[in-house]
Amino acid sequence: MLPKLPDCLTNFCPEVGIVLGSGLGFFAESLDVCGRLAYEQIPGFPTSTVPGHAGQFVYGKLKGRKVICMQGRFHYYEGYNMEQLSLPIQLMSSLGISTLFLTNAAGGINTLYKPGDFMLIADHINFLGTNPLIGKGDENGLLFTDMSAVYDSNLRSQIRVWAKDSDISLHEGVYLATTGPCYETPAEIRAFASIGADAVGMSTVPEAIIARQLGLRIIGLSCITNLAAGLSESPLSHDEVSQTADKVKNIFARLLAGSVELV
Q: For 158-167, what is each residue's pLDDT tens digit?
């Protein structure tokens, strides 16, 4: 059962949900903000424990759309289970969103990528060793959800055209999710490249799976904040992730706002 939310939020009826990844929470301030709701005010709701994740819903209008943002997400490596990771997506779906934008900071595996680049997620690889749909079912039994087209191809096509016309470089590729919290080894990165991964991170995939099961239209957008292990000359750190995200935040804000307008 989903937690009860205040009437000001349930009456808002958002059309678009956005999950903001590491270093990307600033985007919520781009909204014409109508209200905020801290996660700790929601009964039974998890709390964000990672630096750069403010831990609140921010809702308002953007480009004529009613939008709700998660300013801070939850991760498997924080000790949360898949049911807890699913809860925010289920909650936003219950509020009425039909389109979900999943953003993240990711390490670049594709050798054409460099820190500060952006990647539309065309597909993903679930390397978490688990799945948010395990044990879930309805009156017909377990949920065997089709995953052949998770990320909406029509909207992706429109975003690519918009980005090109706006002179924003935008890659498109495959995102691979690991559990974290440690970064990957060079050997793991070579293995991931061999199975078709272009970028790697520690989020997004559980949210995409549950959103797909709920019938939401999904767009995934990665900010390539660092080169993956073995491709970078310096040690990997969360500080690097935050610093890179901060350097490109204006371009990211334009890209995400332009994409929301296309919904």
A: 999 999 999 9
Chain segment 27-40, per-residue pLDDT in tens: 999 999 999 999 99
Paired with 138 in beta bridges are 141
Q: Are 103 and 19 a contacting pair, CB within 8 Å?
A: yes
In the set 48, 104, 110, 226, the catalytic residue is: 226
User: In angstroms, rounded to a whole number, what is the distance separating the alpha carbons of residues 126 and 158?
Assistant: 26
> Domains of the chain by range and CATH?
10-261 (3.40.50.1580)
Whether 78 is catalytic: yes
> Is-catalytic flag, 148?
no
Does the pTM surpass 0.90? The reply is: yes
Q: Tell me, yes or no, if 153 is annotated catalytic.
A: no
Cα distances from 21 to residues 121, 145, 187, 257, in angstroms, run 14, 25, 26, 15
Q: Is 110 annotated in the active site?
A: no
Examine the residue annotation and report whether 194 is marked as an active-site residue of this protein. no
Query: Is position 77 annotated as part of the catalytic site?
Result: yes
Which residue of the set 28, 82, 197, 202 is catalytic? 202
Half-sphere exposure of 1 (CA within 13 A, CB side): 4
- pLDDT class for 22, splitting at 50, 70, 90? confident
